[in-house]
Amino acid sequence: MHLNTLPIQTIHLLKQIKNKKFLQSFYLTDGTALSLQLGHRESEDLDFFSQKSFNPLQLQQKLEKIGSLKEVEINKDTLNLFIKKVKLQFLYYPYKLLEQPLEWQTLKISSLIDIACTKLLTISSRGAKKDFIDLYFLLEKYSLETLFKKMAEKYKGIDYNQTHILKSLVYFNDAENQPSPRMHLDISWPAVKKGIINQIKSFKI
């Protein structure tokens, strides 16, 4: 695991909570889970998904024993907050896991293919620069054809628009003026865009 991609405060908090019983039904996913596996960029947030519904108020009470909580947001099956300047998200995410999560010192970490499928949906609604960068490195491992086949398996029964996703993958306007994350693998923003565009051009609908 590429722990060097995480800021020191994120590493300390992760080590502090990874053995907690309340985390057993969650797995780490999104940017930090990807950075730990690929070592491509710095990532500081901790996003935890669970296939089981949970009580966010009860989880909040358990997290209060770890440190002072800031900017707490609670919704059904969702908890967002900061602990020691680290942003955490806990989310009920009932969709199928295509591969079993990796295990690192009792912590479950989402597989690359599961992260990749979720990343496509994320970009279709948000399109942050860091997400495009993540996708660029994921596309070095999986073709778009493979990802869409896996998406159909992961999100079976969910109505998503493949054409809209493809258009979103080359809509960089919102990301252009966003700061780039600190990179650990050398790649420029123009190269990221070019790489994704080339993948789109070679994809046959």
| Order of the strands making up the biggest sheet | 1-2-5-4-3
Largest sheet: 5 strands, mixed
Category by helix and strand content: alpha+beta
Query: Roughly what is the average pLDDT, rounded to an integer?
Result: 95
Write down the CATH topology of the largest domain: Beta Polymerase, domain 2
N-end to C-end Cα span = 36 Å
Strand coverage percent: 15-25%
Radius of gyration: 17 Å
Tally of alpha and pi helices: 9
Indicate the low-confidence ranges by residue numbers. Answer: none
Order of helices and strands: HEHEHEEEEEHHHHHH
How would you briefly describe this protein structure?
With 205 residues, the protein is α+β, with helices and mostly antiparallel strands.
Explain this structure to me?
α5 (129-138) packs across α9. With 205 residues, the protein is of the alpha+beta class. The longest helix is centred in the middle third of the chain and has 14 residues, at 112-125. The N and C termini lie far apart (36 Å). The chain contains 9 helices and 7 strands; from the N terminus they run αβαβαβββββαααααα. Strands 1-2-5-4-3 form a 5-stranded mixed sheet. A two-stranded antiparallel ribbon has the order 6-7.
Essential attributes:
single chain; 205 residues; alpha+beta; Beta Polymerase, domain 2; 2 domains; two-stranded antiparallel ribbon; globular
